[in-house]
């Protein structure tokens, strides 16, 4: 899944675009504009859409569309960015008097297979992706796990939004993208923030330097009071002193006075009595070789910057030329459109 899906949902809802629940491709923006082409005014509709599972690999071959009530098909799509095949666009020329920009996908050919869409329209929906809510969820519920959390899950009458961000019909008991169970999403959706923090408080508390158990606990109690407004008693009730001693290596220090960590770059040892960290770096390359490499890297970076500079200076001119010809400027290149329908 891709966190950008949330932005597409927001655009699609605020633009009031019609999409069907069973479609893998959803339109998020439609623009209608008049351009002068060879001295004549022409009207174009630009349509932006995305593969909502973010697994596009040139699978889409054709879209069947309803454009202002008229059925058309579209076989050419432009990628909105060179390295992302999931966000696509196309442009249509319509009659100059055609003010409407009502475009909907009614079917498509994907991997050579024709799919007719029969599902209901997706009703407007909201998502909760408040950064603080997500930060707390990741930190307290999925601490240390490689779980994709792009949104707070939400269960509605006809659909549910998984925490990866995927919109699933309510009949699906597993998320189509990340295989999370609907019941698990429901559990997460119903967790209140306060109990989430308090119930996982011992996972988050980490010792700093050579502070004592009490110093560490006091520091966190103060932090939780200030940050979340919880009372000291509530916080202390959830703190498990034995667990903290075990998790933060206090026992270890008492027994041996020393814990050791070895990394690829050398070795580091931590002495709890003196709090000094000794690091022995491993140096494989003689300095002269390094300098030469740095110089080469510098020249390459310089060339890249120069190319970008020239490109950015040329872009407004090329863009203007592209619109003159009646094309669509996408990701630094001029894309031509179909000649009417
Ligand atoms: Zn999911």
Uncertain regions spanning at least 5 consecutive residues: 255-284
Q: Average pLDDT, to the nearest integer?
A: 84
SSE string, helices as H and strands as E: HEEEEEEEEHEEEHHHHHHHEEEHEE
Shape: extended
Based on CA atoms alone, the radius of gyration comes out at 28 Å
Provide the helix percentage: 25-40%
Distance between the first and last residues' Cα: 35 Å
Oligomer category? single chain
Number of strands: 16
Secondary-structure content class:
alpha+beta
In this entry the ligands are:
zinc ion
Number of helices: 10
Report the portion of residues in β strands. 25-35%
Record the strand order, biggest sheet: 1-2-6-5
For the biggest sheet, the summary is: 4 strands, antiparallel
Task: Describe what you observe in this structure.
With 341 residues, the chain is of the alpha+beta class. Among the domains are: 5-124, no CATH class; 131-191, no CATH class. Helix content is 34%, strand content 28%. The chain is built from 10 helices and 16 strands. The chain has helices spanning 5-14, 131-141, 182-190, 193-199, 201-204, 213-228, 232-238, 241-247, 250-256, 287-325, and strands spanning 25-37, 40-51, 60-67, 70-74, 78-81, 84-94, 103-110, 113-116, 154-155, 159-161, 167-169, 258-263, 266-271, 277-281, 328-330, 333-335. A 4-stranded antiparallel sheet has the order 1-2-6-5. Strands 4-3-7-8 form a 4-stranded antiparallel sheet, with no helix packed on it. A 3-stranded antiparallel sheet has the order 9-10-11, covered by helices on one side. A hairpin with a 5-residue loop joins β10 and β11. The chain is extended. The two termini are 35 Å apart. The model is unreliable at 255-284 (pLDDT under 50).
